[in-house]
TrEMBL record:
It is a multi-pass membrane protein. It is found in: Cell membrane. GO terms for cellular component: plasma membrane. Residues 272-313 are annotated as: Disordered. One of its GO terms (molecular function) is channel activity. This is Uncharacterized protein.
Length: 313
């Protein structure tokens, strides 16, 4: 049977994704919604669990390595604890609060107009309180070991200057926030249906890789709630003197500007030709198959000025 191929003129393809509207700067109506307070509880609990597991891992490693230099999980195991917990907690809380678990991430989404100022401020408060409570639980369980092994606080290692530590934290936070923006981009979600399910995976891996690089320098404080929680409970002069929580906010600003002003414009320009070409090719193949089998082809979208085709019955 002969196959009929009909060529169609190129049309401007409508977007296959929907840009969410910018969040209002001050949405007082959120304060009357139970979902808002449920999200705050989710952020508090998630940050509490994150700090409890990770700081307990750090203290346990230092206790074991003090008796046996080859004992404990090592730097690799600590990095896995941080990255793995972020993967788990983002997966669990993404549908409730968005799975921020990090004031730097919340600040970045505020700059991108994904959350309101009220929600961002309350998220950051809940995250910091959760971090303090989580580290407090660790101290309550292993008080002697906690005080004797630095309390899991971020401190600049010997041989590194404060400027070096600041630079390492800025780069590490840039990697994390950049990954968050990329993994949650609506254009990527539209192109690849599996991406929303896998979004926590690259975020967790980003945390893992950054910890491998910066644990020897600062202990990795790319999460201000993690740094503040450990510093408050440990409460020693060096932990406060070496505090670099301003660096994640600086890196967040740079990452947000880079992604929203550079990459998104580039992706929009590229998606016009390549995306339309791929869609036209798929449409032609579907017409070949439908024509050869005697069925009426169907379309999910119609070009501007065209009439949508009849759906298959």
């Amino acid at each position: 049977m002969s196959k009929e191929v009909s060529e169609e003129p190129e049309h401007v393809r409508p977007k296959d994704y929907t840009d969410p509207p910018p969040a209002p700067l001050f949405d007082v109506g959120e304060l009357r919604l139970w979902s808002f307070y449920r999200a705050l509880i989710a952020e508090f609990i998630a940050t509490l669990l994150f700090l409890y597991i990770t700081v307990a891992t750090v203290i346990g490693y230092k206790v074991q390595s003090s008796a046996d230099q080859c004992g404990g999980v090592g730097t690799l195991g600590i990095a896995w604890a941080f990255g793995g917990m972020i993967f788990i907690l983002v997966y669990c809380t993404a549908g409730i609060s968005g799975g921020h678990i990090n004031p730097a991430v919340t600040f970045g989404l505020l700059l991108a107009r994904k959350v309101s100022v009220i929600r961002a401020v309350m998220y950051i408060v809940a995250q910091c309180l959760g971090g303090i409570v989580g580290v407090g639980i660790v101290k309550g369980i292993m008080k002697h070991q906690y005080n004797a092994n630095g309390g899991g606080a971020n401190m600049v290692a010997s041989g590194y200057s404060t400027g070096t530590a600041l630079g390492a934290e800025i780069i590490g936070t840039f990697v994390l926030v950049y990954t968050v923006f990329s993994a949650t981009d609506p254009k990527r979600n539209a192109r690849d249906s599996h991406v929303p399910v896998l979004a926590p995976l690259p975020i967790g891996f980003a945390v893992f890789m950054v910890h491998l690089a910066t644990i020897p320098i600062t202990g990795t404080g790319i999460n201000p709630a993690r740094s503040i929680g450990a510093a408050v409970i440990y409460n020693q002069k060096k932990a406060w003197d070496d505090h670099v929580s301003c660096s994640p906010l600086t890196a967040t600003l740079c990452s947000c500007v880079h992604f929203t002003k550079c990459l998104c414009l580039h992706m929009l320009n590229c998606s016009g030709s390549s995306g339309r070409g791929r869609s036209s090719e798929r449409w032609r193949r579907r017409r070949i198959t439908s024509t050869s089998s005697g069925r009426q082809p169907s379309r999910r979208w119609a070009p501007s000025g065209a009439t949508p085709a009849t759906e298959l019955r």
